[in-house]
Amino acid sequence: MERTFIAIKPDGVQRALISEIISRFERKGFKLVAIKIVIPSKDFAEKHYHDLKERPFFNGLCDFLSSGPVLAMVWEGEGVIKYGRKLIGATDPQKSEPGTIRGDLAVVVGRNIIHGSDGPETAKDEINLWFKPEELVTYALNAEKWTYGVN
Ligand code: GTP
Ligand code: MG
């Protein structure tokens, strides 16, 4: 089953939005298969955002990601990579639709509270960067037969 990497950035953790964000993924029907709280080093943040290293905000972004605890998660479900990005909303919260996480809970692009992998390759790379294989838990949820049906 498809998996994606989702992280609540230091602003989301400090603003006490962990349960609100987890709840949106959980209520949708996605399954949490890994979770931990970590303060990434600057070097680690630079690895995570390596594709943005030519952008003018790269240094500030990496300083910010390493400035406090991040809640790192892996969520599993059909279409979770693309739909996770929909739940999150547009990068700039000024452009995110109401009803999305950033649309409802954030105001500026530099403090947009959450990260989500943008495709299957980045999901794989980011899960491998943030988690060891044994930290991913494979299990069945009772509700799965209701979420997905049997046919
Ligand atoms: P992530 O899920 O965090 O990767 O966001 P994204 O995929 O929606 O956007 P992108 O990967 O292009 O940018 C990564 C992060 O860089 C964003 O989430 C923002 O926090 C930050 N960022 C992007 N564009 C800008 C910008 O123009 N200015 C500033 N200050 N930060 C930006
Ligand atoms: Mg991105």
From TrEMBL:
It catalyses: a ribonucleoside 5'-diphosphate + ATP = a ribonucleoside 5'-triphosphate + ADP; a 2'-deoxyribonucleoside 5'-diphosphate + ATP = a 2'-deoxyribonucleoside 5'-triphosphate + ADP. It comes from the Eukaryota. ATP binds at K9, F57, R85, T91, R102, N112. Its cofactor is Mg(2+). Residues 1-138 form the Nucleoside diphosphate kinase-like domain. Keywords: ATP-binding, Kinase, Nucleotide-binding, Transferase. Belongs to the NDK family. This is Nucleoside diphosphate kinase. It comes from Rehmannia glutinosa (Chinese foxglove). The lineage of its organism: Eukaryota, Viridiplantae, Streptophyta, Embryophyta, Tracheophyta.
